[in-house]
Amino acid sequence: MLIDRLVEQHRPTPPHRLPRRIAVSTLLGAAIILALVVTWGIRPNIAASSATLRFWVKLGFGAGFAITGFTGLLALFRPERPAPRRLWFAAIPIAVIAAAAFNEIATVSDAELTALWLGKSALACPFAIVALSAFPSYALIQAGRRSAPTRLRLTGGVIGLTSSGLAAMLYALHCPENGMTFVATWYSVGVMLATLVGIICGPRLLRW
Amino acid sequence: MQASLAGDARAHRALLLALLPVLHRYFSRKVSNNADVDDLVQITLIAVNERRDTYDPKRPFSPWLFAIARYKMVDQFRRTRSHVRLDDIGEIADERNFGEAVTARLDVEAQLARLSAKQAAAVRATRIEGLSVAEVAERDGISQSNVKISVHRGLKALAKRVFGQ
User: Are residues B42 and A2, on separate chains, in Cβ contact within 8 Å?
Assistant: First the structure.
């Protein structure tokens, strides 16, 4: 009988196994990204730039998405929980970077603004973020398949958001650009692309 | 559930046994085929067993259980494609212009009711049911020209009523 078979190998379930699984996957992905970014090279003037506010805004932009997404997944990996309202916290990094970008537009001359906005790596940046986000995405999808998400599209999107948030945060350690308009544009494109991929692939990859 | 999470195999067994009738009743209400009901009960029991770490002991049990049951049901329907989710029926009907077809049909019936019985029967048989004039003539035991005239007069009257008002 089915139930006999299921009961046979019954083991205790440690409490908090689900949140721990999500955290381990996220940290594993973050560790791989960090290793790659360090290998690639930390931005040369890190000591000087880390004293500036813009450096921390840049780092916080990705971190905001990563934290929001992570707490979202804590709910989404359980079957019965409604769509978590705290996902709206993703609006905070958007608002901060928008304010910083408008401030830059208002204070900097046009020629300088273009230089800041495009920098030297405008096109590389979104693709680097999407590529790096693949590692935590993979780990989180594996974790998701062993959990019980029931909104696969939303969960896929939030996995993309979390992963690309992490990627954006850690990529900022490498990325030598200083423009807030740069972050507002190219970092956002990377995060949006990864989230979109998650939304599209979620139902297929997360099925259980 | 708490005891079963703690690793008590007897409690776990009792829990799964208690879920059997609950799930059976749940799926019976949603699925017509008995074999499908049994499959779904088994699939859900396995999922409950495998994914019990997604249950949060601080929250009520039954929403968790039925969320899994519902997910498994929808997933199963998608796999086999033999059923349609209730939520999707409206969409599918829209896709096939179901609503329009129904109202058009009602309009036609209302208009036909205003023709003479003979004309209405001839129009319905040749233009809606798609029979040939010869078939109608044979079926109703009248001449072919009689059928043709009825269809012609009937359609003319309809056209006058619909377009000429």
Answer: yes
Sign of torsion, CA A93 A98 A101 A106?
Answer: negative
Q: What is the CATH number of domain B2-83?
A: 1.10.1740.10
Distance CA A16, CA A19 (A): 6
B79 touches chain A (CB under 8 A): no
- A151-162: buried (b, 16+ CB within 10 Å) or exposed (e) per residue? bbebbbbbbbbb
What CATH number should be reported for the domain whose range is B114-163?
1.10.10.10
Range(s) of chain B covered by CATH 1.10.10.10: 114-163
Which of A1, A4, A7, A204 to probe the B interface (max B CBs under 10 A)? Answer: A7
Tell me if A164 sits within 8 A of A61, measured CB to CB. no
Question: Which ipTM value was assigned to this complex?
Answer: 0.84
> Which residues in A lie closer than 8 A to residue B47 (C-beta atoms)?
148, 208
Per-residue CA distances from A48 to A15, A54, A56 (Å): 45, 12, 12
- Give the one of B13, B55, B66 whose C-beta lies nearest to A3's C-beta: B13
pLDDT tens sequence across B15-71: 999 999 999 999 998 888 888 898 899 999 999 998 999 998 888 898 999 999 999
Q: Is A17 on the interface with B (CB under 8 A)?
A: yes
User: Is there a contact between A161 and A122 (Cβ–Cβ < 8 Å)?
Assistant: no
- Smallest Cβ–Cβ distance between A10 and the set B7, B59, B68 belongs to B7
Q: Rounded distance, CA A167 to CA A162, Å?
A: 9
On whether any CB of chain B is under 8 Å from the CB of A79, the answer is: yes
Per-residue pLDDT tens digits for B83-129: 555 555 555 555 555 555 556 666 777 778 888 888 888 888 888 77
**Where along chain B do the CATH 1.10.1740.10 domains lie?**
2-83
What is this structure's pTM?
0.73
